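Record format v2
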Amino acid sequence: MLTFTIDGQTVQAEEGQNLLEVALAHGFDIPTLCYHPSVSAYGACRLCLVEVTQRGRSRITTSCNYPALPGISVVTRNDRIDRLRRLVMELILCRDPGNPQLQAMADRLGVDRTRLRFASRQDGCILCGLCERICRESIGADAISFVGRGHERRLATPFDEPSESCVGCLACAMVCPTQVIEFTQDADTRTIWKRTFTLVKCKECGAVLGTPEELALFQRKTGLDASYFDTCDACRKKQTATAFAAVTWGGQRP
Amino acid sequence: MKRLFITPDRCIGCRACELACSFAHAVALTSPALSRIRVYPVASDRFVPVACLQCEEAACVKVCPTQALVRNPETLAIEVDHTRCVKCMMCTVACPFGNIHLDLRVDQIVKCDVCGGDPACARFCPSLALEWAERPTVGPVPKPEPGRVVLPFLVP
Ligand code: SF4
Ligand code: FES
C-alpha cells in the first residue's frame, strides 16, 4: 500500500497501479478514449492528462500509464490541463469530425470544432489500438495489428486477408471507442474483418451461441468440457429447475 | 456467512421475487423479464425459483477473458464489472445452470449479486422459499418475523 493525494484528497493504492485506475476507483472524473481496465495502457489518446507534483517539481502527464507513487500529489483538473485536453481533442477530432463518439467527447470537453484540416482518411479510427490489445491480451487470438507508417498507419488483419486466427468474438468491435469496427450478423452467419463464420446454435432451442472458433478457443483456454458450450442460458435455466424439482420431490410427479 | 437459500416446496409461485429483483436492479426500465431470479412452474402447484448459485469454482469466472466477473469477498457473490465486460457472452454459454444472461434492453450482462448483501427477492418472498440466512429454517413456514415485508394477499 502506498499513499498519495488526488486533488488534495489522500488516497491509497497498490504498488503497480496506474494513476488513472486509482483516480477512477475513487470517483474522480478523467476523460479517456483508449483506456480499458482489462488490457495494458498504451497512452494513445492523451486525454487522461493530469498534473503530477513530485519533490516540488510538477509536470503534465498521461495518467493511464503513470505509476502511483508514494507522496506525489496529482491534480486532475486545472486551467492548463483543460486547455491541453481541448487541444488534444481538436487533434483527435480532425481524424473524423463527424464521428458521434468523438463529437460526444468533444462536447464534454467544450470543443465545438477542430481548427485542423487533415483529410487523409476519415474513417473514425483514432489509432488507439484498443482492438488489437483486447484481441491479443484478453481473447488471445492476436488476429489484428497495426500496419503501415505515418499517415498510412491503420489496423488490419495480415495482408488484409480474412485472418485465420480471428475467432469472430466481436470483442474488438465492442471496445472500439469510436465504434467503427464493422460486423454483420444474420440468422446463420457472422462476418467481421472480412471473415464469415457459421454460427453454432443451442442444441435445445436453436438460439445463437457464437462462432465454432470462439467456443473452441474458450473451451481450450478453460479446460471445461465441450458440453458446457452447447446450450443457451434460457434452456439451461429450465433444466436447472427440472433438476431442482427432482431433488425436492424425488421420483414423484415431475 | 449468510447465503441465499432456496426451498422449492415452499414456493407458492407468486413471483414477488422476480418483481422485487427487477425493481432492485432497475437500470433504465423495470420489468419482471429483467429479473435475475426466475420461477419455473413444474406442475400446477409446484414451482422452482432459480438464481445464481455463486459457484465456488465458477465456469463464468473461468471463461471470462477480461476478468469482468469478480467475487465480492463480503457477500461471496460474483459481480459483473461492466467497465471490463466486452459482452462476448461466453459466460452465458458456459454457466451450466443458465444463471447469467445478456439483457439486450439494457445491453448488459446481468446476474444475481445478492443485492450487495440484502437480496430483495428474499425480503419479499412471503413463504420463506427464499431466505438470506446463515442456515435455512426447516419444517413448516414459521410466522413472519416483525419487520419482514409480507404481502398480505400472498400469504399461503
Ligand atoms: S460477456 Fe463480459 S462478463 Fe461475460 S465472459 Fe464476456 S467479458 Fe466476461
Ligand atoms: S487513456 Fe491515457 S492516453 Fe488514452
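The two ends of chain A are 56 Å apart (CA to CA).
The interface with chain B takes residues 36-38, 134, 138-140, 169-171, 174-175, 209-210, 214-215, 218, 221-222, 224, 228-229, 231-242, 244-245, 248-249, 253-254 of chain A (CB under 8 Å).
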